[in-house]
Design goal:
Strands 3, 4, 5, 6, 7, 14 and 15 form a seven-stranded mixed β-sheet that branches. Strands 10-9-8-11-12-13 form a six-stranded parallel β-sheet, with helices on both faces. A two-stranded antiparallel sheet has the order 1-2. It is α/β, with parallel strands linked by helices. Strand 12, helix 10 and strand 13 form a beta-alpha-beta unit. Helices cover 29% and strands 24% of the residues. The protein binds zinc ion (2 copies). One zinc ion binds next to helix 2.
């Protein structure tokens, strides 16, 4: 019997299907990986409930109905002659395609910014990113993480050290990976005070990364379930953003009451973005690691930029130059304990609907699927 692939799809809101598809095909520069874990990201919060993620980028499609998931780890199943990988290698797949010629590829930056993952598509192609990978390989499956098998560009694969469990390696994608790379860009120094707000799984990754850097972490948080996760990680300072004196409480925790050194929002909501800007000291750093379609923040030049002299950053996924330091962090035992606290649910892919429902409920940290089960 010839080998096939099994691919998760969401044909309509609140209904998923495990569809049988032909086994993937690859061209030079790509490998086929058997997925062991896949992280639930926007699939749960947006695609499961209303399919609006497909209308991003001014109506151009960035996600497609033939597959889901961009975060996975697994075992190399097939390579072509001349590959730098071997069948059986355990790998992290960093999301998206790789062209090798653009600013992002030439400077070791994040695949999301590679021209192969943004519009217009490569010559001869109609789609980008995960779908583009599948089409470029003239394959009928394999673009996505929530599937038995996935096609990955070898340039975006990294071998996992022998002693590192798949579960911790999986945190290299959104969550710890995106957070670590943003913190490298911000150059967060040990001993700094870091305020996080809008606590979802990317923010939880920021907390893990900031604690690893020996920073003092303060969280602006209302979600009681996620407060408990932060307490298990050892975060002592939790402030309710609805408290009348929330700002005084935060300032009182900082050197000379001058405000935090770094303010990070993981929600994309202006409510939290404004609050972290208010609480960050002059010459401090502001980072936006989350985004919500249709939300925008109004800035007043003097009040919000010139007077505070804040540096603004924010980027998707993991820069290539940060991959080694990221995986070194994931090997740290305390970091692994905190990942155990962050990953509150692991579901077999056959129960993906339950996973998406839990994600929507916000009574969770990061959720992983096991695509083989
Ligand atoms: Zn590129
Ligand atoms: Zn993600």
């Amino acid at each position: 019997m010839s080998k096939t692939n099994v691919v998760l799809t969401i044909p309509e809101p609140y209904r998923f299907e495990l569809a049988e598809r032909p086994f993937p095909k690859i061209r030079a520069g790509y490998a086929i990986v058997r997925n062991e874990y896949a992280g639930v990201c926007l699939e749960g919060s947006r695609i499961w409930t209303r399919h609006d993620f497909e209308k991003f980028y001014g109506g151009l499609q960035s996600d497609y109905p033939d597959g889901l998931g961009h975060e996975s780890v697994g075992v190399v199943e097939q390579v072509l002659p001349g590959s730098n990988f071997r069948v059986g290698d355990r790998v992290v797949i960093f999301q998206g395609d790789w062209c090798g010629h653009c600013h992002s590829c030439l400077n070791g930056l994040s695949p999301t910014y590679c021209t192969a993952n943004s519009y217009p598509p490569k010559p001869g192609m109609k789609r980008v990113a995960m779908a583009g990978i599948q089409d470029w390989n003239e394959s009928e499956s394999g673009g996505w993480a929530m599937a038995h098998y996935r096609i990955a560009p070898e340039a975006n694969m990294m071998r996992i050290p022998d002693g590192l469990d798949f579960k911790y390696a999986q945190a290299a994608n959104c969550s710890c990976g995106a957070a670590w790379s943003n913190q490298e860009i911000m150059d967060i120094r040990p001993g700094s005070t870091v305020l996080v707000a809008g606590v979802g799984f990317i923010t939880l990754g920021h907390v893990i990364s900031a604690l690893y850097r020996n920073c003092t972490v303060i969280a602006l948080i209302r979600n009681k379930y996620r407060e408990e996760i932060l307490r298990r990680m050892g975060v002592e300072y939790l402030v309710d953003p609805e408290d009348a004196d929330w700002l005084e409480k935060i300032r009182a925790l900082t050197y000379e009451g001058q405000g935090v050194d770094y303010g990070i929002d993981g929600s994309g909501h202006p409510y939290y973005q404004k609050k972290i800007m208010e609480a960050t000291r002059v010459y401090g750093n502001i980072n936006f690691s989350g985004h919500i379609p249709g939300q925008s923040l109004q800035l007043e030049g003097l009040r919000d930029v010139v007077d505070p002299q804040h540096t603004f950053t924010g980027q998707h996924d993991v820069r290539k130059i940060d991959r080694e330091s990221l995986v070194r962090m994931l090997c740290n035992p305390q970091v692994q304990k905190n990942i155990d606290a962050m990953v509150t649910h692991v579901f077999p892919m056959s129960k993906a609907g339950d996973a998406f429902d839990v994600q929507v409920s916000k009574q969770c940290g990061k959720i992983f699927l096991q695509p083989q089960l």
